[in-house]
Amino acid sequence: MVHSTPKNRYRTSVQLSNTVNMRLYPVFLSLKSRDCLVVGDGPNARRRARMLMRCGALVTLMAKDKPPASFDGLHRHLDRRFREEDPADYWLVIAAMEDVASNASIAQACQKHRTFCHEVTSQANSSFVLPAIIDRSPLLIAISSGSAATALVLSLKRKLDGLIPAAYAQMGELMDQHQGKLEKMIPKQSERALFWRPLLDGPIAQHASSNTAAHFEQSLEKAMAEYDHKVDAKKRTGFVSLVGAGPGDPDLLTLRALQLIQSADVIVYDRLVSESIVDLRRKDTQMLYAGKAKSEHSMPQVAINQLLVDLAIKGHNVVRLKGGDPFIFGRGGEEIEMLAKNNIPFQVVPGVTAATGCSAYAGIPLTHRDHAQSCVFVTGHLKNDKINLNWKDFHDPTQTIVFYMGLTGLTRICATLIEIGRLADTPAALVEQGTTANQRTHVGTLESLPALVEHRAVKAPTLLIVGSVVSLHKTLNWFQPDQSQADTTQSHFSSEKSHP
Ligand code: SAH
User: Fold this and answer.
1) CB 242 within 8 A of CB 332
2) pTM more than 0.85
């Protein structure tokens, strides 16, 4: 299988203009108590009749067979043939006969009477289509390509279905129930919009991703009570989400990470977050760069910790986006300790860490029954020209060792492993900018890798994998980075240095 990583794939290049480029006019019809006709006997006709009944339409089913008793709510059943004058009595008609010619003549009769008609056997004869829907009633999303690209519609439907929490249905109902009271409380529409924003784009809606609307109801009632007591909405404390952005490929984000990125007021991101992930934000989201490079601490850790507290106190919904997983060599723990100390509510969203992302995309399983029974993740960071590790723990040939931040110290790491007893011909791989279009995998042994890498202008971030499992790369290397998307001039990430 071949997989590629196009850059900026989420950007649209469609130009809007007044020329005729929309095949259909999007509307949602209110059919409550309006007469609608469905013609046909099969399951198709019944399914369509049921949907119209769910919308409160007065549905007439014209069919030879009497519908079963379970089909309650039907306005009437007509056991006769369709007549040309029938459409005059209906707002819309669905022609769901099995034979194409009968459907076509129903569509023709509707055309004469200017009654909208959907003909199940021919899109061309229909004056309206039935879109694919994502039903979180009262929230309804309809998708159509006007029959141009049905598979694309279905693929998008599947994606959106996964993205929109089921609890949005209950949230929509709750909003509806509170609407009247809220309109009295906040008569101005623009102020009501401000009231809703923190509830819908903030922490409460995030609870909906765990599929419970109970939090939403409580928070809504609390927000209304606070508003009633004239508490300035801006004084309410915000929320911080510490989110793992994965190793680079945006497709490796979790659903929750994507939802949070797209609903944040402020995103505080770090150097290791790839540009294509930063591009997923809303255009009005404030972006704060807290990147750190090895020798140029553009923002010291304490300053980042304080920044998160300050932003939350101002009432912002903050996403702290970190490369990989926030709890693996990410100092995420320190950032939330400070939040906890200041009573700021927060959540942690795990991400795919560099070790699992790079090993998957390089075709190097970290454990394998024939090669390695365990693996460890360590930091190869050099401090005062030394790497502080318990080297004696690493002599086991059935253990894979993954070194984060191991590029600068590569020669030292390989030499030390040989000194403590690992064989000089132990396979070792350096995965460069793993999971991105710029990924390269440099494979050698503990003895040969440092010299091999020296001449290849390697760019950080890189991950070093040591152990017998590396020999599997030759046969399991499935990922073909899309060369046309590779950036030959600069790193895919904001800086080339490794994380301190
Ligand atoms: N929290 C991060 C790690 C931060 S430490 C995580 O869980 O992945 C930074 C180190 O991670 C880098 O020096 C490098 O060793 C590794 N790293 C992060 N992204 C990488 C990538 N796309 N390819 C190779 N190594 C990566």
Assistant:
1) yes
2) no
Mean pLDDT by 10 residues, the chain (500 residues): 42 52 91 97 93 96 89 92 97 95 97 96 92 94 91 94 86 91 85 79 60 76 76 65 96 92 91 90 89 63 94 91 96 93 93 98 97 96 85 94 96 96 97 96 97 93 98 97 68 43
What is the rounded CA–CA span in Å between residue 355 and residue 463? Answer: 7
Q: Is the distance from the beta carbon of residue 445 to the nearest atom of ligand 1 less than 6 Å? A: no
Angle between helical axes of 189-201 and 168-185 (0-180°, round to 10) = 150
Report how far ligand 1's centroid is from the alpha carbon of 143 (Å): 39
Q: Is 33 helix (H, G, I), strand (E, B) or coil?
A: coil
In whole angstroms, what is the distance from residue 26 CA to residue 36 CA? 20
CA quadruple 458, 463, 466, 471: dihedral positive or negative? Answer: negative
How remote is the CA of residue 310 from the centroid of ligand 1, in Å? 28
What pLDDT score does 126 carry? 95
Tokens of 143: 């998708």
d(CA 261, CA 163): 13
Sign of CA dihedral 435, 441, 445, 447: negative
Q: Tokens standing for 250?
A: 């945006």
Separation between Cα atoms, residue 321 and residue 308, nearest integer Å: 11
Q: Choose among 421, 468, 427: nearest CA to 449.
A: 427
d(CA 406, CA 132): 50
Please report which residue ranges of 28-149 form alpha helices under DSSP H: 43-54, 100-113
Which member of 265, 270, 322, 325 is catalytic? 270
Q: Which run of H or E residues covers position 243?
A: strand 239-244
- Annotated catalytic residue: which of 7, 249, 265, 292? 292
Ordered strands of the 35-39 beta sheet = 76-78, 58-62, 35-39, 92-95, 116-119
Beta-bridge partners for 429: 443, 465
- Nearest-atom index, ligand 1, CA of 499: 9
Buried b or exposed e, range 32-45, using 16+ CB within 10 angstroms = eebbbbbbbbeebb
Ligand 1 atom at shortest distance from the alpha carbon of 493 = 22
Does residue 380 have its Cβ closer than 6 Å to ligand 1? no
Catalytic: 270?
Answer: yes
β-pairing, 132-136 with 139-143?
antiparallel
Token digits for 107? 């569509």
**What does the pLDDT read at residue 254?**
94
State the pLDDT at residue 199. Answer: 80
